[in-house]
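Re: [help] complex structure
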Amino acid sequence: MKLTRKEIVDQLKNIAGKDRVITDEQVLKENSHDRYKKFETIFGVYTNPIPAALVKPADTKQVSSILKFLNKNNINCVARTGGTATEGGLETIVENSVVLDGSQMNQIIKIDETNMLATAQCGVNLGELEDRLRKQGFTTGHSPQSQPLANMGGLVATRSIGQFSTLYGAIEDMVIGLEAVFPNGEITRIKNVPRRACGPDIRHVIIGNEGALCYITEVTVKIYKYFPENNAFLAWALDDMKTGFTILREVMVEGFRPSVARLYDAEDGVQHSFDQFAEDKCVLMFMAEGNEHVARATALGIAEVVEKYDGCRPIKAKIIENWFNHLNWGPEKITEERELIRKNLHIGFTTEVSANWDCINTIYENALKRIKADFPHIDDLTMLGGHSSHSYQTGTNLYFVYDYDVVDCKPEQEINKYHIPLNALIVEETLKAGGSMAHHHGIGKYRTQWTRQEHGSAYYILKGLKDQFDPNGIMNTGTIYPVEPE
Amino acid sequence: MKIAVCFKIIADYDRMSEKDWEWDDRHFIDISFVRHIFNCFDESALEMTLKLSKQLENLPDPCELTALTVDDEQGDLFLKHLIAIGFDHGVRIQCDGRLDMRFNSHGISNLISRYIRQEGQTLVILGYQGGDGDNGQTGFLVAEHLGWPCIREVIEVTVAESSDLLKVKSRIDGATLVQRVKLPMVLIMGHSLDSPYLRVPTLKQKLNAKKKPLTIVSSTELGLDNDALHSKDKTLMDLHRHNPGKSCVFLEGKTAQEQAKKLYDKYLKQRLSL
Amino acid sequence: MKAALVLSFDSNSLQQQAHEINAMLNHTGTQFSNVELWLFYKDRKPEFSPEIFCPLSGIKLIQVEYVHLPESYLDLLVALMGQCPMDLLLFTSDGLGQELATRLAYRLNGSSALKVEDCRLIRDTLEVIKPVYGNNLSARFVLKSSPYCLSVAKQPFHPVKMILMELLKIKTILLNQTQPWWVKEHLTILDPPKTGLSNTDLVLVVGQGAGNKKTVDVLKGIADTIGAEIGGSRPAVMNAWIDINRLIGASGLIISPKLCIAAGVSGTGVFSVGIKNSRFIVAINIDSKAPIFQIADVGIVGDLATILLELEKVILTDKNKKQVHHIVESRIETQ
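Output below.
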């Protein structure tokens, strides 16, 4: 027998205490979605089922008790902390879901300067942790644009990446140990050691699970010494993305590790005002940082690589530095965006993919071509472009960016008319050429139709994890794994 | 009806940090590395004019919109943007780079009014203030040069029954003034709640705008040489950056509750006679 | 040097405007041989004038017919300057003062400057100080030709008293005025009564960081319970969260409460000028690097709604305690 909404709420109150269970309708509505549906929700339209309750557990034990209860009663659980997800992962698509919001588990547990470790509960804001560390001369090295708002739990759950990833790596390179709770209430702790050969690296079951396998309650990341005084910015304007990718590759293959390595096309550059400094040009930029010897050598080496290529015109470093210092998304920028959307019915989204060096430019060109050819409302687009912002020895990512006027459609129709089809065209072209459909936002709920194709025969392993750890399928239904027809 | 909107591009001062506020011997501040944006009052003026021209569409006298700026090449990008969203002409008046026009509203308004007279516009719209000089005088002086009436702190403009009659709402001391006025006229935009942000052009509009040439007019073509433009009004002696001289005490605390309590007990209680 | 102070008797802010002009007279190191008050009025001839903090050599009462038209004032001023020339004219800080200063100087081949914070006579020229670069800097200028027409800077609210004018000094000016050709009709819609914002001890100023109208409405509730007036930065006003007559900053109100709480305001130059005269500033912002902290006495980095809701609780608890205390005390008295 399914529990009624009231029964669910009552039982949750018994477990967590009544102050920790929120049923205010507006709060629940706000917790029924994420930034994927930002358009309709700005206009006050909420099309997902409204969750039964939002629960803010006090500690890991409560998380365990709550999950055990939800699991026993087959109630869908959506894990949430900072709420900055962009791919629908936080949408409550099942009736009477319970949103488990870890934002009140917000203690920085330990900063261990000897072993270079920082341990934080899932609800610790990354910006706050970073501020604390910087005061002591350290950094996490993790700096996604959502830093002012995102919390540690969500950052690990979505396999997030930051703007300095080329040097510090993405979240999976930073996480040393974890505590997570599985739907049956099992609390698991993975200890903090530098490396081991004791079976498969089980951290990767948890990192990036998007709340579909377990609930992350505590995270330990490594920390780095922080030398902002050595930061060096370098940038060039160039004619085409293809050359840009070639240079990026050479920088990486030569072994340089800038913290930032970015390549913008001219269209995408406009929204960053790069056209004011390099009109109709692509912009390639780097930041070298770290210990002064390393930073200097990195900057010199990169300049040497780039200057071999014809047609690269240097851009003043100060321009890039100033731009970069204002790139993060705090609440003020989000509000500004909301107001612009509301007043001008104009909105923008992104789709981030990745691929090896040999096909990245093909994906870039084909996806844009495909959109221009096949997207029926191309006339409503105000911007279509992309950039690469995370490079590796073997390849790079591509961030497609598209803005449009929402014309002749109800708020709730926006995603069907624009966002979903545009996203689909990009994913299709990426998979066709051999890339990966999601580089760092996670699969969420709008790319699950391609999860099998993404993983191919290895889907067997991915599927096995769900069967093993969430046999009742209560963990964030419809995320990562497609909803199977009954 | 021929309408000219005069605008100014400014550095986004909010992106300048303390160390960026330094100047050279001529009191110039390096703002070249900061992105530039429309002065916010001019942005309102531009968007409001586009809305006004929409209303004029159905009248027999078609509307011809000119966007006008006194600037160097950096203004071109913004003019192209304006053409893409619906302005018919993008005009840039270029002065000799050696002239310091920052505090020279007289020179700027002289240039603008000469161009307006030459082109036969009957309505000039400008933002209320802005730019490095923060002069707040250009609109008034354009009205003086042209010998036209002027309405300041405009918040809304709509078409009255014929195209040479406008209904203009503006702010005066403690009241809103609604007037039905005849052209020619200078309007100076204040805070417009209706059109604070400029619209964004579509890809297609941007592409089309690229084909349209901009009009670049030099100050000498308007009959003003450097001598005539030289400020007879005021001379800049020096600049000064205020140091607030405060050092903020940050209240730490494990919870918001703790922070609020600290704030109240330590600082607010004594100051509030609650 | 001869100076005239130009005010409008019918202005809603007459006493505050007089205070701002007094402030300028106070600052300026210049000695005036002769200071006149030029007071415009429409219907009823004034008997009182705001108190001016320097000896007046004369008062001119000038009747103006078309009060809504700056052009009417200008014609009158040009005529008057012909009859009794002045070296310096001080105008009010509002839009009318700015317009008159600029246009009159143009018509009389003088020099003008707006938002003037300070002025002094150095030999034959006048030096002024005014803000530039979006209130991020101030500049010192030499004005080149007289008459110097200055619109003074806004000041925190401190209206001067009205005093009876000395009859002997008064001269009434009646000049012919022509009807404007361009105004077909006009209508004046008076604002609702002024907010108490300029003249209160506690102000809560809300900025873009509040995030949405709903949160702002909650903040308005908090302001109510803690007895604060609410104000907004330009973005908060442009988002229609806060009424435009509560706009704080260079293009709005300059406030100076005992205590100002700035929540979710980043602290741009044009905003900060509006609150920097407050006796004590508390800033709440999620970004620890926000410039608002540079002018704040105390700062909290965090979510503004959470913190303010907690603050409301603390204040209410304390208030209730006090009330209980009062009751206990009064009981003792009656016993």
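The interface with chain A takes residues 15, 17, 32-36, 74, 77, 196-197, 199-204, 206, 254 of chain B (CB under 8 Å).
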